[in-house]
Amino acid sequence: MTDSENPGTETTNRLPLKVDHVTLLVSSLEESMPYYGTLLPLLGYHKKRDWVWTDGNGYFFQFMQAQAGMPAYQRYGIGMNHLGFAAPDVATVHRVRDGMSAAGFPVPEIQQLGAATALFMKDPDGIRFEITNYPPGADAVD
Q1: Right CATH number for 21-68+80-133 from 3.50.50.60, 2.60.40.10, 3.40.1260.10, 3.10.180.10?
Q2: Count of alpha carbons within 13 Å of 141, Cβ hemisphere only?
Q3: If you write DSSP's letter for every residue of 89-142 in order, what string do you get?
Q4: Which in 71, 98, 114, 123 has the greatest CB count within 10 A?
């Protein structure tokens, strides 16, 4: 049987599929888009159209209005806990924090997690974003 006959078969010559988009449902597009309209350009993304941002290399963030009455985001609930972004240097972590603060959004202090420099922010719904500069050779997750 060939791989095409058995699509669940793994082979060593295939690359993993890349993640090409994330769709986030927010409680209010009106309240959330000013936050994302500030954050995403600081992370290198540009607006493609209403509620869609891209890095220009095939990765997209899409935002949609959640249905009324749906449960709110819970940090330790089932589903996404947070989105993490690797900063190329410590200055980028500070630049993102400074940019969000200058736009009037609440931002916590930058943390030192061993040799990593991290910023954890929350959008208007409490969805967490991590911007971290890792030392060379460090993995993003333990």
Answers
A1: 3.10.180.10
A2: 4
A3: SHHHHHHHHHHHHHTT------EEETTEEEEEEE-TT--EEEEEEPPTT--S--
A4: 123
Per-residue pLDDT of the chain (142 residues; tens, 9 = 90+): 455 555 665 556 788 999 999 999 999 999 999 999 999 999 999 999 999 999 999 999 999 999 999 999 998 998 889 999 999 999 999 999 999 999 999 999 999 999 999 999 999 999 999 999 999 999 998 7
Domain boundaries, the chain: 21-68+80-133
Q: What does pTM read for this prediction?
A: 0.85
Length of the chain: 142
What single-letter amino acid sits at 76? Y
